[in-house]
Amino acid sequence: METFYDVMRRQGITRRSFLKYCSLTAAALGLGPSFAPKIAHAMETKERIPVLWLHGLECTCCSESFIRSAHPLAKDVVLSMLSLDYDDTIMAAAGHEAEAIIEEIVTKYKGKYLLAVEGNPPLNEDGMYCIIGGKPFTDQLTYASQHAKAIISWGSCASWGCVQAARPNPTRATPVHKVPGIGNKPIIKVPGCPPIAEVMTAVVTYILTFERFPELDRQGRPKMFYSQRIHDKCYRRPHFDAGQFVEKWDDEGAKKGYCLYKMGCKGPTTYNACSTVRWNGGLSFPIQAGHGCIGCSEDGFWDKGGFYDRLTDIHQFGIEANADEIGVGAATVVGAAAAAHAAVSAVKQARTKGDND
Amino acid sequence: MADQMADQAASQQTAVYVYEAPVRIWHWVNAFAIIALCVTGYFIGSPLSSVSGEASDHYVMGYMRFVHFAAAYIFIIGFVFRAYWAIVGNSHSREIYLPRIFSKDFWDELWHEIKWYSFLVDEPKKYTGHNPLAILAMHLMFVWGSIFMIISGLALYGEGAGMGSWQYQFFSSWLIPLMGQSQDVHTYHHLVMWLLIIFAIIHIYVAVREDIMSRQSIISSMISGWRLFKDNRPSND
Ligand code: HEM
Ligand code: SF4
Ligand code: SF4
Q1: What's the CA gap between B175 and B195, in Å, rounded?
Q2: Residues in chain B within 8 Å Cβ distance of A300
Q3: Do B173 and A342 count as a contact with CB atoms less than 8 A apart?
Q4: Confidence of residue A86 (pLDDT cuts 50, 70, 90)
Q5: Is pLDDT at A30 greater than 80 in this prediction?
Q6: What per-residue string of b and e applies to A127-166 under the rule 16 or more CB within 10 Å gives b?
Q7: What ipTM was assigned to the predicted interfaces of this complex?
Q8: Architecture of domain B11-48+58-228
Q9: CATH at residue A259
């Protein structure tokens, strides 16, 4: 039996680095220092579970994010933990040999391996919009998922659909949990476009070491990273509460770092860890760079109106207007109707009075 | 049947006690809560111009939201209390919650009321409670509108209060995925505000008009509780 620890040693990671990594991960997961030895123990004794990483319709931003995990150590360790024997982007094999790897993992680790999905399958035209190794990606996905232990939906594509599923979604790109034939597998969603590297590595580590999912919310996202909105932990929040907003790009408020609410910041409606974990090794995140959050980890964020509008357009009923435009329009019509009705009523009243006199 | 007898009795007398004190108090508290909610809600969606100076010297959005939430809880408690009163109060207190849609009279009277508003008949009928058109408007726009505002409002509140809060557990956790995402809940919470504003425009216009043109008192009834009739002729004469 090969353990995670064995694999890491084989990859040239020292014991010292390994222990460092365990404490780091415990901290990232918010588990407290006492969990570091537990993680270490699990990794030393547990058999390595391979992770099969499939790519459907996607832009590879999740992989790109993942391999840029802040701590080089975390990256090395996690990469060696994953059986990235099959990963379109970084695997060595090609062609038939590559496809054979899937077959091998599925048969050898039936019911044991984790399936990580980046992107999603288009269901229209029997899946012809995404062909991998001569077959529709849908087939590859359903085949691999049926024998998997659990599924990780990487990014907004696999979790919600993302840009390829935006209206009118001509290929019927469908998020993983809605694909028929996936089987009744546990699915964890790690949305974001892309998800934050540290969030990705922490989620994988948690699942591999504890052999279960971290606590999920009702929509299947790990609570430790997705239980709060950007707005709840945003460092510009005091300006929001004070009523200090950027009104125009490059105005005085923009220079002073006021709240970006009026510029359409979607922080108040977006569940993600950007305002705490931040990006690029905790260096910064969009709001810190002066741009509002576009809500990239939210379901259907491409279809929720402008990235720069606070009140976004509704297009459900064949209209393209925001709630205030619709409301003011309707209220004006009703008000005018009431006024006209009042005028006619007054005439009638005057007439009846006249008749009675 | 009982209603009919009451109506007949009503047509002979000139004053009936319709709105019990709790209903009247609720009506006005509720009206002011809604005004506060609409004003603060509007400015939550489109905040006032920025204030300058140190952030720690101001709390404009904070107060705006605080007033919204305070009025929201008054509105919610009032609504729940009013629903309870619909059960224990007099028969008029139920009208807007359970419109008598299974009674033929209701639809006949509704038709008559529509004709009255289209200037097709000279005189409205007399009603001790609300007329059927008013009942339908109150039921569909006000009662359901309020229920939507309470549920969506608590769902938005739960987002700020956090996943451990009861608001999140009971409202946000299912409403947000049901509507798509948080931004949709904001949008529809905002849109239904306009439904309530339109209801208020109609409600106030009609109340004033009926007060002048119908055969019974309207506005003063919501203050005194008594419905006064302006003539002694039977209801549908
Ligand atoms: C007559 C009833 C109500 C009206 C007219 C109203 C109106 C509004 C409006 C227009 C907004 C701004 C929405 C946006 O554009 O983002 C808003 C936000 C909000 N409302 Fe209401 N509301 C009502 C009742 C309630 C109730 C009962 C609650 C329950 C606590 C509530 C809680 C909230 C919350 C939490 C927000 C979001 C505040 C924020 O984003 O900081 N509302 N409301
Ligand atoms: S910048 Fe965005 S996330 Fe930050 S406080 Fe303002 S609205 Fe909220
Ligand atoms: S700040 Fe918003 S848009 Fe930017 S990465 Fe985070 S969730 Fe996505």
Answers
A1: 20
A2: 180-181
A3: no
A4: low
A5: no
A6: bebbebeeebbbbbbbebbebbbbbbbbbbbbbbbbbbbe
A7: 0.89
A8: Up-down Bundle (1.20)
A9: 4.10.480.10
Same domain, A173 and A55: yes
pLDDT band at B1 (very low <50, low <70, confident <90, very high): very low
Same domain, A59 and A194: yes
For the packed helices A323-356 and B21-45, what is the interaxial angle rounded to 10 degrees? 140
Predicted local distance difference test score (pLDDT) of residue A220: 95
Inter-chain residue contact A326 with B191, CB threshold 8 Å: yes
Q: Are residues A96 and A216 in the same domain?
A: yes
Q: How far is the CA of A299 from the centre of ligand 3 (A)?
A: 13
Where does the pLDDT of residue A79 fall: very low under 50, low under 70, confident under 90, or very high at 90 and above? low
Q: Which of A166, A191, A226 is the last residue of a domain?
A: A226
Is residue B11 scored above 60 in pLDDT?
no
The rounded Å distance from CA B41 to ligand 1 centre is 5
* Domain regions of chain B by residue span: 11-48+58-228
Look at A244 and B213 and tell me if their CB atoms are within 8 Å: no
- Asked if pLDDT for residue B12 goes beyond 70, the answer is no
A180 and A208 in a single domain? The answer is: yes
Residue A198 lies in a domain: yes
Residues A237 and A103 in one domain: no
Dihedral sign, CA of A275, A175, A49, A96? negative
At A166-215, the pLDDT tens digits run 989 999 999 999 999 887 899 999 999 999 988 988 888 888 778 889 99
Condensed to tens digits (0 to 9), the pLDDT of residues B98-143 reads 988 888 888 989 999 999 888 888 888 888 888 889 999 999 999 9
Ligand number nearest CA of A302 is 3
A62 in Cβ contact with A118 (< 8 Å):
yes
Buried b (16+ CB within 10 A) or exposed e, A270-291: bbbbbbbbbbeeeeebbbbeeb
Are residues A139 and A250 both part of a single domain? no
> Any bridge partners for residue A120, and if so which?
A57
- Global pTM? 0.90
> How many domains does chain A contain in total?
3
Q: Which ligand places an atom closest to the C-alpha of A257?
A: 2
Q: Which of A229, A236, A256, A275 to mutate to test the pocket of ligand 2 (most atoms within 8 A of CB)?
A: A236
Q: Is the CB of B75 under 6 A from ligand 1?
A: yes
Q: Which atom of ligand 2 is nearest to the CA of A229?
A: 3
| pLDDT at residue B5 greater than cutoff 70 | no
Q: A331 lies in which domain range?
A: 323-356
User: Residue A310 and residue B45: Cβ atoms within 8 Å?
Assistant: yes
The domain that contains A120 carries what CATH number? 3.40.50.700
Shared domain check, A113 and A184: yes
* DSSP helix/strand/coil, B220: coil
If one counts every other C-beta atom within 10 angstroms of the C-beta of residue B43, the result is 17
Which ligand is located closest to the Cα atom of residue A243?
Answer: 2
| Contact residues, chain A, for B193 at CB < 8 Å | 323, 327
Choose the closest CB to B60 out of A242, A298, A314. A242
Contact between A282 and A70 (Cβ < 8 Å):
yes
Picking from A63-72, B46-55, B210-219, which range would have the lowest pLDDT averaged per residue?
Answer: A63-72
Residues A162 and A193 in one domain: yes
